[in-house]
Every structure is written in C-alpha cells, then in structure tokens.
C-alpha cells in the first residue's frame, strides 16, 4: 500500500481477542488477533466526494449491496449497504487521487481512473476459510487488471458490453486523459479468467491498449458509449463535444472514425450522455 496513515489510538478486547485501531484519517478498523485479519472498518468522514457508483456482490441481486466512492484520496472506498451493516473497505494500489468510476451492466465489477495515469479493474471475490468451507465471508474487492499508457491524469471512463457478429461477448473499456487521447482496451478475456472466485489473488495483469487516438486539443473531461456501443461521445476543455463511430469488425482491429462535432458551448464541456432508448446525446457544462 502506497498510502501510510498514522495511528491515533488502539484498544485491545481480550474477551473477543480483537484490536480496534483509530487512525488519523478518521477511520476505525477492527482486527482479529493474532492473524490481523480485517473484521470491520468504519469511516468517520469521506471528505470531498468526486464520484460514486452502486455495485452488487451478486448479479442475481435486485438491489445494490455496496457503494463505491472516489474521494480526494488514492483509496477507493467500498461501503456496505446492508440495513444493519456499517462497514467500509479501502482499496489500495493507487499512488494518486482517484478521479472517476465506471461499472459493468450487472454492477458486479467496476473500473477506477486516477491521477496516477492508470485505470484499474476491480471485482468482488468471496473469501472462504478452508477449515469451514460452508461459511462464506464478506466479499473482498481485488484488482484483476491494470491499464497503463496515458501520460497525464486519467479522468474519464466508459464501458461497452455487446455481442459481436459471431455472438461472442465483448467488453471494451474506453479511457480518456488530459493527454488528450482516448484509449480502448479489451477486457473480455480478463473478466472471463476472473470468474473463478476460488482463484488465488495473483498479481493483476497489465493490459495493452487496442487503440490510442488524440481526439481533442485540450483535456478530455468525459466520454460515453451509446446504448448499442456503436458510438463513443467525448466532451473536452476545448468547448467541443465529438461523436465517433466504433467499428469492432474492422480487419485491422477496432477503429474510431469521427462522425460529428458538436459546437456551441462557451466553456469546457463536463457532461455528455447518450439517451438509452432515443437517438439523442446530451451535453452540458
């Protein structure tokens, strides 16, 4: 973990053999002894909240079970949403502030983008005690892939999930930066390999981008795939929104082709969103 937090106070509970640690970042963390296994974590303050995303630990669940929160910190916070649950997990691995989050359609995995110029793909796994295989512990979130290559802060993400012409499930991740470039990444094989919840927590793989393209003259603030994944929209500090057609059947691999430029804003564009059921795109400051 690249983030080191001071300890204000500790309390030992001999009855339950646990240690409560009060840290200077306004968190209380409860550990089992002597293993130092994390039991529960309570956060007193989240500071400035930059982005949030609802998540599910199980795709079959009707309601979200967790909330991912990006704050002015390198740590993504995962809050449990159970009625009687007051737990927060801090996900390490970043060296600078997390700027954006994007989740899958089924909400079981998500991606975070950071000032450290990279994106990380996170997925929930159940931890089991080998001596008590019937007991399933709380889900733990683990990095399954890292996307590196941008040369400045990575501040925008969008995920596309679709079936190709052969009926194969494809998952693409678009990342955008202050470069100002957009990169496309194929997450399909990475997510398939991560389906085994009993797989060991190996070092996450580093992915290679399928495409890198400069699409604006200034920082890219936001990107969004259309519902059918045929278009990618972008909004930038250059006061322009742009639309690109996405061709994932090209012989040379995936391609982006400029389909339109939207002008009229007097300042940088901080919002772009395709409507789900209508052929419209919204832009805003």
From TrEMBL:
**Can you say where the WD repeats lie in this chain?**
91-123, 172-195
**Gene3D superfamilies linked:** YVTN repeat-like/Quinoprotein amine dehydrogenase
Keyword terms: Repeat, WD repeat
Task: List this protein's GO terms for biological process.
Answer: endonucleolytic cleavage in 5'-ETS of tricistronic rRNA transcript (SSU-rRNA, 5.8S rRNA, LSU-rRNA); endonucleolytic cleavage to generate mature 5'-end of SSU-rRNA from (SSU-rRNA, 5.8S rRNA, LSU-rRNA)
The organism's superkingdom is given as Eukaryota
One Pfam match, given by its short name, reads WD40
Q: Give the GO cellular component terms, alphabetically.
A: 90S preribosome; nucleolus
**Name the record gives this protein:** Uncharacterized protein
State the organism named in the record. Puccinia coronata f. sp. avenae
């Amino acid at each position: 973990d690249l983030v080191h937090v001071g300890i204000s106070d500790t309390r030992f509970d001999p009855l339950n053999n646990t240690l409560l640690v009060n840290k200077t970042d306004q968190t209380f963390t409860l550990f089992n002894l002597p293993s130092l296994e994390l039991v529960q974590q309570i956060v007193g303050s989240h500071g400035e909240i930059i982005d949030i995303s609802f998540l599910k630990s199980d795709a079959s669940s009707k309601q979200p079970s967790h909330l991912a929160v990006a704050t002015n910190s390198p740590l993504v916070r995962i809050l449990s949403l159970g009625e009687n649950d007051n737990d927060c997990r801090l996900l390490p691995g970043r060296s600078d502030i997390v700027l954006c989050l994007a989740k899958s359609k089924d909400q079981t995995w998500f991606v975070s983008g950071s000032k450290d110029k990279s994106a990380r793909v996170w997925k929930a796994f159940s931890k089991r005690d080998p001596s008590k295989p019937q007991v399933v512990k709380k889900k733990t979130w683990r990095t399954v892939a890292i996307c590196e290559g941008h040369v400045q802060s990575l501040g925008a993400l969008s995920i596309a999930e679709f079936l190709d012409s052969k009926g194969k499930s494809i998952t693409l991740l678009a990342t955008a930066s202050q470069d100002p470039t957009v990169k496309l990444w194929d997450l399909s094989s990475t997510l398939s390999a991560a389906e085994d919840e009993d797989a060991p927590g190996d070092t996450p793989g580093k992915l290679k981008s399928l495409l890198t393209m400069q699409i604006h003259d200034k920082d890219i603030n936001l990107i969004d795939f259309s519902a059918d994944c045929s278009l990618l929209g972008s909004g930038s500090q250059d006061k322009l929104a742009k639309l690109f057609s996405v061709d994932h059947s090209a012989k040379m691999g995936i391609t982006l082709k400029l389909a339109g430029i939207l002008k009229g804003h007097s300042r940088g564009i901080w919002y772009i969103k395709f409507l789900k059921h209508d052929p419209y795109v919204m832009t805003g400051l």
